[in-house]
Amino acid sequence: MTSQVLRRNLLKSPVFKMHPARLCLRLAEGKMKYCLMKFCRVLCLMLTSPLRLMELTGLYGVYRRLFPFLAYNVTFSYNDKMHNTKRELFRNVCRFANADGSLRLLEIGCGSGANFKFYPDGCTVICTDHNPHFHRYLRRSMAANTHLTYGDFVVVSGEDMGQVEDESVDVVVCTLVLCSVRNVQRVLREVRRIVRPGGAFYFLEHVVSEPSTWTYFFQHVLEPLWYYLGDGCMVTRATWRDLEAAGFSEIHLRHIDAPEVTPIIRPHIMGYCIK
Ligand SMILES: C[S@@+](CC[C@H](N)C(=O)[O-])C[C@H]1O[C@@H](n2cnc3c(N)ncnc32)[C@H](O)[C@@H]1O
To answer: What does the record list as coiled-coil region(s) (predicted)?
Structure first.
């Protein structure tokens, strides 16, 4: 593009059409909103300091035991709201089956097994999660979804799945997990290691909102509290950037607003990457 075209496009942008006074007002408003956001976040951080202390002293571990029970119950409502979205997400998962029709799928952070009903008949599912206390609820979902075959439940963190062999599965799935892991890039490296060439990684994750929105404002303000309620869940991650940088050969990614879900986690990304 020549510099003249660039200049013409720039002059057409709404910012340049705005009266200078209005532009200054907008900038001042933006700056004020940003300062307010930072101030409220610090307040929220201060309010959650007892929780931080509990985490440091190991007392928060009690909540970690309780979390699977809460997550199991919240999952029903989330799954109801996201039923059509999840159906659409896993619609073409059979495409990654082998010539004999077999499909080995590994879920990272499977939780209580909320996705089982969306997987195709006969698929073998290997469940992994770093929290062993999900096992009880996982067993209930397994009993309710007899159309699948299950491997052992592997208690392992997504960042280091050394127990899982290289290129040993056709599909890897993460739903509402990349928000909570400590290191998204390391998890994606592990995904690329364990999925076979031509296999796929399916994801459905809540992400940070557009900076101009109130959702973005409240995501930043309430994150310190949400982190503890959601067992390490961060609401300000731009996970699509990590996916784009992870080195997959194809990415099919869509930004969506999850219907009826709590506003702070409404912006989602969904799709799949091919190795
Ligand atoms: C909000 S729950 C989602 C559970 C399930 N995927 C679903 O869609 O209902 C987040 C899950 O990620 C798991 N998790 C968080 N960090 C993890 C990590 N580093 N490695 C493995 N699992 C992790 C949690 O234990 C929990 O089961």
So the answer is: none
